[in-house]
């Protein structure tokens, strides 16, 4: 008579329980890593397309960011940062504010959504990325011997109004626009990136944003 071997119900349940515990411990890390990679890729893409838009505008309308004027009425027939990106990118919606969001990272002058957002423009692109900057932004230039420096700043959100709506920071630090961090590393990139722009350049504005751009992976 052949004797058959198999697992008992208790053994199966114990095995499933162990698998469940291991999955519960590893899934959050895996998801964070996946989201971080997506945020990093989207951020690099956003910087690239914004820079290309400036170069294209120079070719077509013969002005770059250093030659822009302030634009408080949303007109697209004048030389402004607003008009430049509206005319050269696929903008599906614009906003002065979004009361459903409340982003108030210290030291950033509420440049995105929240209490001070009525002083800013937010451009929503067709790929889900948003770009926010103050309405008063004008004459964005790095400066030289004859031109006063006026580097402009804004925020890229790679997934728009969706959460987490969190400013990227160096590991072990809190939100800060201006502080310098030695050997900044960003293990888990988030969705919001401060940028500075002038002349024909759009670049990271903080150590953390720079670390994500040049950190590989």
From TrEMBL:
Any Pfam family the entry gives: N_methyl
Keywords, ordered alphabetically: Membrane, Transmembrane, Transmembrane helix
What protein am I looking at? Answer: Type II secretion system protein
NCBIfam families in UniProt: IV_pilin_GFxxxE
Which organism is this protein's natural source? Answer: Candidatus Scatousia excrementipullorum
Presence of keyword Membrane: yes
| InterPro entries assigned | N_methyl_site (IPR012902), Pilin-like (IPR045584)
Q: Where do transmembrane segments lie in this chain?
A: 12-31
